[in-house]
Amino acid sequence: MKLQLATWPEVEAYLKTSDAVVVPIGSTEQHGPTGLIGTDAICPEVIAAGMAERNVLVAPTLSIGMAQHHLAFPGSITLRPSTLMAVIRDVVGSLANHGFRRFMFLNGHGGNIATVHSAFAEIHCESSMAGRASELHLELFNWFTGPRIKKLSAELFGDAEGSHATPSEISLTWHAYPDRATDTVLDPKRAPDGDFRDAIDYRNTFPDGRIGSEPDLASVAHGERLYTAGLEDAMEALDRLRNK
């Protein structure tokens, strides 16, 4: 069940049987010449939609994340870490007010990880400072690190996966939006690898936006397989959270 497509009585009824909610979270940032700017939000949103079909309550996607290092590429949007932390705290606080206690943030962007964990720490700190035990279970699950996804990505792409604008994430977006698939051949075939400091340094080091990846290996067919693997990984992670 998708929260935005439910009525409040339906959510109230859901809470009588479950206190778990999935919150997809991603980013709005460049993904190389062939990747959609919404890739990091689309991927968890697509997997979460499959979870919604299995009687899981799924909140609206938090589609803008911490992506300051992509700002030298047109179309990228970022929140400051402090802003994203405030958004997460308000989302959790709002839903906790209604009785939700188990929150799985289904993440599609590596740049969100530190900030989301910091937001969790702030939430738990509020209980500790007040001298009470926290009733909330807060989990971050990165779809791209699930065991089935990692195994399948290694099988399909090996070290051509890279770390940004990867063939796995682009394949998954093409599964969702097959009309956006392209057979464009990139030059160089494999993007350079390395480190960066800020947005300007990022673009100077990785001129087309990719890092270590060969996204021209992506396909709609691969995306369908990755979707199936990602959904099973996410459901398994949610089951662990439900049993806490």
Please give a structural write-up.
- By secondary structure, this protein is mainly alpha-helical.
- The protein has a single domain (3-242), classed as Creatininase (Rossmann fold, 3-Layer(aba) Sandwich).
- The protein has helices at residues 8-15, 39-52, 81-96, 113-129, 147-157, 167-176, 199-205, 220-242; strands at residues 20-25, 102-107, 137-142.
- The protein has a three-stranded parallel beta sheet with strand order 1-2-3, sandwiched between helices.
- Helix 2 crosses helix 8 and helix 6 packs across helix 8 (220-242).
- The chain is globular and about 55 Å long.
Question: How are the elements arranged and paired?
Answer:
Layout lengths: L7 H8 L4 E6 L13 H14 L28 H16 L5 E6 L5 H17 L7 E6 L4 H11 L9 H10 L22 H7 L14 H23 L2
Parallel strand pairs: 1-2, 2-3
Features:
244 residues; mainly alpha; Rossmann fold; 8 helices; 3 strands; 7% strand
Can I get a quick summary?
This protein has 244 residues and is mainly alpha-helical.
